[in-house]
Every structure is written in C-alpha cells, then in structure tokens.
Design a protein that fits this description.
By secondary structure, the chain is an alpha/beta fold. It has one domain (4-274): Rossmann fold (3-Layer(aba) Sandwich), CATH 3.40.50. Helices cover 37% and strands 19% of the residues. The strands form two sheets. Strands 7-6-3-8-9-11-10 form a seven-stranded mixed β-sheet, sandwiched between helices. A four-stranded mixed β-sheet has the order 1-5-4-2. Helix 6 (155-161) links the parallel strand 8 (140-146) and strand 9. The longest helix is centred in the first third of the chain and has 18 residues, at 24-41.
C-alpha cells in the first residue's frame, strides 16, 4: 500500500518553484483525489474532458522552511490513471510557466497541453478559446481549478468560463486573507471582496448576519456559493466544503469547495470528504 503523501514528494530537479505552507500537502491530496475520480468517472460519459488550472504555478512547490518539494496541481492532474484529453495551464509568472512546461513535457510527453502566459483575468478569452468546441457529436466537460494565493480572484472570470460546461474546484482563502483584513474590507472602501463575490450588496446581508465577526469567513464562503448558484450551479452549503486548517496553530485557512451543475460530481466530492480526515492512502488501494 503506497502512501499518498510519499507519492507527493519529488526530488529537487533544479528548476524554479514557489514556496507553500505545510498545509499545502492536504490541499493537493484532496485536489488530486478529486481529479482522479472526475477523470475516470466522466471518461465514458463525455467525448472530451478538459482540465483547466487558472493559477498553475511552476508544477512543483517547496514547503516553507524545509528542503521538501512536492508536486503541484498541474503535475498531479497529468498523473491521473485516465488522463484528461486536454490540459490548459495559465500562469502569470513567466519563469514559473517555463518551468511548468519543462516538467510537463518530462513527466507526460505527448499529452495535449496548452500554456497561457499572463493573468487568468486578462487572458480569459484565450483560455476560453483553448477549450474544444462542444457539439451534439462532441460533448465537452471541463474541470477548472481556481487556487489563488488569496481571496483576490475575479468572479467575472468564473462567470465567463461558466458559459460552457465547466465544473469548478475553488479554494476560498477566507481565513488567510479575508479574515485577517476584516476591517479593511467591510468598511466599503476596498473592492477586493466585491470582485471575488461578483456583487457589492454582500455588506447589507453581512449587517444582519447573526454570528458576528467570528462568522465572517463562513459568511463569505456562503456568499460565494450563492454567486455560483446564480450561474446555474447546484446549491452548496458551507458544511459541504472542506475546511483546511494550519498545522501549527490549527487556524482556519480556507475552504475547498466544488461547484457543478451535475449531481454526479457531488457524489465524487462526497468520497473526497469521506476520505479527507487523516487519510494518507487512496480509498481504492
């Protein structure tokens, strides 16, 4: 029986990579498990399956204050038993994107991969054009990972992608960013939360939220789910999201949430949640 966290580790290959906290191991374990369930489960139901990573990074990451390196989301997605038919990787940092290309070509030569340089928000049309066109004879379903460094994503980018058949796996950094900057965002002088939620009316609802300041991260996660529901995605409650905490102080960092228009996707997500507590092996091993 192989330990998944052992599989996550990689040697230093001499290429650049970003730094992450130790909790990123948990994040990538959950993402990788869902990638595998999705890619295999949808293989015979759709003609083409597309994987989109809006903040792809360099492919490998180094755990902060250690020499340990781990696979990032693009490399994990490339390694699923039933690979996606196309991969679309967007990354703003040119050096990271170049390193990702080298790592991708080394570990999965021949797979169909598209590399988009620049911010996903400014390059969203390029990303959309890279998705194969769907038709009655060519059904296309995409899985899009939205894993920003903070709560600085733009909901309009998600809205534009949602115009085709796309499921979203979203990291909501409401503990790491929004919680720490509570006063800055609530006073109404900064549009960051407005842009992430896709509306400016959330402050009115926050005034009537019964849990007070300590419930801010939970409120924002619920608000984001409401925004996704407005795009036709199935209703998601906060308890259906995975809350990931820091290793050192057990502080809430972020929610990892799935959004789909198909109930089958939530069956897969339910398996991820079931095996997410202190698991180091895949459920089928």
């Amino acid at each position: 029986m192989t330990s998944f966290l052992e599989d996550l580790r990689v040697p230093d290959d001499g290429l650049i990579c970003g730094e992450v906290g130790r909790w990123a191991e948990t994040k990538y374990r959950l993402i990788s498990l869902y990638d595998e369930l999705f890619a295999t489960g949808m293989k015979n139901k759709w003609d083409q399956r597309v994987y989109i990573d809006l903040y792809a990074g360099a492919g490998h990451s180094q755990i902060r204050q250690t020499n340990a390196r781990i696979k990032g989301s693009p490399i994990l997605a490339l390694g699923v038993p039933d690979p996606f038919d196309r991969y679309i990787f967007c990354e703003q940092d040119e050096e990271f994107l170049a390193a990702l290309r080298q790592r991708t070509e080394r570990c999965a030569p021949g797979l169909d991969a598209v590399y988009v340089g620049g911010s996903c928000d400014t390059e969203i049309e390029t990303i959309r054009q890279a998705i194969p066109k769907g038709s009655p004879s060519n059904k296309v379903l995409s899985l899009c990972l939205v894993d920003p460094f903070d709560f600085g994503m733009k909901f309009d980018t998600i809205r534009r992608l949602s115009e085709v058949f796309v499921d979203f796996l979203v990291l909501l950094a409401v503990g790491m960013d929004a919680g720490r900057n509570y006063d800055h965002y609530v006073d109404g002088n900064h549009p960051k939360i407005d842009d992430a939620l896709g509306n400016r009316t959330w402050r009115e609802r926050w005034k009537n939220y019964p849990k007070g300041k300590r419930g801010f991260r939970e409120f924002l996660a619920a608000e984001f789910a409401l925004s996704m529901k407005s795009l036709g995605y199935l209703d998601v409650q906060v308890h259906q999201m995975k809350l990931v905490r820091s290793d050192d102080k057990n502080l809430p960092l972020y929610y990892l949430a799935l959004f789909s228009r198909h109930s089958t996707a939530y069956q897969f997500w339910g398996q991820v949640l079931k095996y997410s507590t202190d698991q180091t092996t895949f459920p089928w091993e």
